[in-house]
Automatic annotation (TrEMBL):
InterPro entries: Homeodomain-like_sf, HTH-type_TetR-like_transc_reg, HTH_TetR, Rv0078-like_C. Residues 33-52 bind DNA. It holds the Pfam family TetR_N. It comes from the Bacteria. It comes from Ferranicluibacter rubi. Keywords: DNA-binding. GO terms for molecular function: DNA-binding transcription factor activity; transcription cis-regulatory region binding. This is TetR/AcrR family transcriptional regulator. The keyword DNA-binding applies.
C-alpha cells in the first residue's frame, strides 16, 4: 500500500529530528553541519527548511523531544512512590539527576538555553508546569501542602528543579554539584508542606 504524502512528511520529520539529535549530541549545535545531517538521512536542506524553518527550529524540535522524554521519565518515577507528595519530590529530583546524561547536558541544558533562550518559556516546560500545578492543587486539597497559590508554587518548584539541572550541567564537576543541588531542592520544596514530615 502506498504511503500518503502526510505519512512521508512525518517520516522525513522524524528522520531529521533523529539525525539532529545525533549531530547536536556528538558535535554541539554550533559545529553541527546541516549539509552532513541531511545527507546522512538522504534528504535535502529544503526538507529541513520545510519542516523546521532553519537549524534553530530543528534544535527546538530536538529539545522538545528530549525534554518530553525527561518529563515522562520523571513522572513515571514519581508515580512509583508511596504518596503524592513523595511522588512530586521524586519527579523534581529525577529531573535534576537527568542533568548527568551527556546528551541532556549538551542539547537541553547548555545549547538549548544559549540558542533558544529562557527554558521556562519553552512549550515543553510549560507542559511540565501544568502537570506540577495540578499535583500541587491536589496536595493543597488534601491538606498536605500549605494553601498557597498553586500556580506560584508550581512555577517556583519547577524553576528550582530546572535551575538546579542547569547548574549541574554547567558546573564542570557535575558529580560534586549534583548532591548539593538535590539537597537544596528538597529543602526548598519541603517548605510547602502544611506539616513537617
Amino acid at each position: 500500500m502506498a504511503r500518503t504524502r502526510a505519512e512521508t512528511m512525518e517520516e522525513n520529520r522524524a528522520r531529521l529530528i533523529a539525525a539532529g539529535r545525533r549531530a547536536f549530541a556528538d558535535k554541539g549545535y554550533a559545529a553541527a553541519s546541516m549539509d552532513e545531517l541531511t545527507a546522512e538521512v538522504g534528504l535535502t536542506r529544503g526538507a529541513l527548511y520545510h519542516n523546521f524553518g532553519d537549524k534553530k527550529g530543528l534544535l527546538a524540535a530536538v529539545v522538545d523531544q528530549i525534554d518530553g522524554e525527561m518529563a515522562a521519565r520523571a513522572q513515571a518515577i514519581g508515580a512509583g512512590m508511596d504518596d503524592a507528595w513523595a511522588g512530586l519530590l521524586a519527579e523534581g529530583t529525577a529531573y535534576i539527576e537527568m542533568s548527568l546524561d551527556p546528551d541532556v547536558q549538551r542539547i537541553v541544558l547548555l545549547d538549548g538555553p544559549a540558542v533558544l533562550g529562557d527554558p521556562s518559556k519553552w512549550p515543553s516546560q510549560d507542559s511540565c508546569l501544568q502537570v506540577t500545578q495540578r499535583a500541587i492543587e491536589r496536595l493543597i486539597g488534601d491538606g498536605i501542602v500549605k494553601p498557597v497559590d498553586p500556580e506560584a508554587a508550581a512555577r517556583l518548584l519547577s524553576g528550582a528543579a530546572l535551575n538546579a539541572a542547569l547548574w549541574v550541567a554547567a558546573s564542570g564537576d557535575a558529580a560534586r554539584v549534583l548532591p548539593k543541588a538535590i539537597e537544596a531542592f528538597q529543602a526548598l520544596a519541603t517548605g510547602l508542606l502544611a506539616e513537617p514530615r
